[in-house]
Each structure stands twice: as structure tokens, then as C-alpha cells.
Amino acid sequence: MKPILVVANWKLNKTLAESLGWLERLRGLLPGPLDRGEMVICPPASYLAPLKELMAQYSWEAAIALGAQDVSQFFEGEYTGEIGVRQLADWVKYVIVGHSERRRFFGETNESVNKKVRWCQEYDLTPIVCVSDFSQVVSLPSATTPGKPLVVAYEPLSAIGTGRPEDPQVTEEIARKVKAQVPGARVLYGGSISPANAAVFAALPSVDGLLVGGASLVAEDFWEILQAVYALR
Ligand code: PGA
What we know:
Layout: E1 4-9, H1 16-29, E2 37-42, H2 48-57, E3 64-68, H3 85-88, E4 94-97, H4 100-105, H5 110-122, E5 126-131, H6 135-138, E6 151-154, H7 168-181, E7 186-190, H8 198-202, E8 209-212, H9 219-230
Parallel strand pairs: 1-2, 1-8, 2-3, 3-4, 4-5, 5-6, 6-7, 7-8
Helix pairs in contact: 1-2, 1-9
This protein binds 2-phosphoglycolic acid.
Residues 9, 155, 160-161, 190-193, 211-215 line the site of 2-phosphoglycolic acid.
């Protein structure tokens, strides 16, 4: 069976105590490291260090990887408020790039997304590039380095946070197109993933995993998604 990547995007949610509590609760539920796939938690950036510390305390680095929700398009310098690739590289393995909320509220463009992809790949972080339509995929190959890991997450706007996921057949068609356009990329689906629909999307032949927003906020719900995807007991 194919390996499945499941990514939790917490967005702008949770206090530090809630984040650590979430990890403790998931630890109580999960029998051990996943044997076919990888789980990634993308918390607010200020919680990366404490979560990593707690994971090290439990020797849990093999079970869960950390990811950032964004990275600056700039390397260093006078860019107040930004977090650059070097500031993330010690903490994370993955970086979400170009999420539709970043494109909508923070002026992210395909050009800035491509710069971020280049920084990530240069520093051996895996970018998870979010696209809501195929036009956002077209310029991607010019930014990617062959042989470096790349993940593309298809997240249609109509499905994000609405409880109305994309049609699985349409998702499969788009995932197949993305793979043809960006050879070597793994493709995720995101948008209203829930314990009830996770297995359907994860089983699509061209889909390599899921990007989960709302349903990742409660450890027990996320655990149900993991159980559905990995058939865990
Ligand atoms: P959702 O969000 O699962 O809450 O729809 C997905 C995302 O925005 O990544």
C-alpha cells in the first residue's frame, strides 16, 4: 500500500497549553510511529520549539514531524515580522507555502510562492504548496529543483472550512494533472476533511495524503482521521 502523508494545519488557533495538551492526548491514543506514512503538525511558529522539546522528551520525533505554516520570501534583513528559512530549518521538516488564506489576506502571489519554494528546497525543507486551481500549478516547475522533495496540496476555495469537500472524482482528475505538470511531486487533498471522508480521499490513486484544517484541532478527531487513513486500531 502507498505511504500516506497526513498534515495538520492549526492556522491561528490554540494557546501553548492547548498545543502541548493536544500532543499529550494524541500520544495517549496513538500506539506508536506510523508504519506506512508520515504525520506532520503545523502549529503557530512560536510553538515549534516547545512542541519539539516535548516530542524529544517522549522520543517521538520518529512518529510526528513538525511543519511551519509559512516562510518569508526574503532570506534576511530589514523585514519586520518575517520568519526566514534559516530560522525555521532547525525546527521543521515541512513548510506550507501559498495557502489560499495567505494569498487572500496577505497578498501572496505565484511569484512569492515560487521564491519560498526555492528557499525551502535549498535548505532541504519540503514545501507543501497549496493551490486552489490549476493556474497556480503552471508556474511551479520553473521554481522547483529536480530531485528535491515537493508536495502540492489541492485545496479548492469552495471546500476550505465549509463542510463541503470537493467531489472525489474531480480531485483524482486534478491530482493526476498536477503530477503530469510537476513530475515527482506528491499530491495532497485538503478542504473539509473529516473522520467520515478521510479514507475516501486518501484512497484515490493519485492522492498521496491529506491536509487537514478544522478537524485537526481536536486530538480525538485527528486520531479518528489517522485511524481511518491508516486502518489503525
Ligand atoms: P479545513 O481547512 O480542513 O478546515 O477545510 C483545510 C485547509 O485550509 O488547509
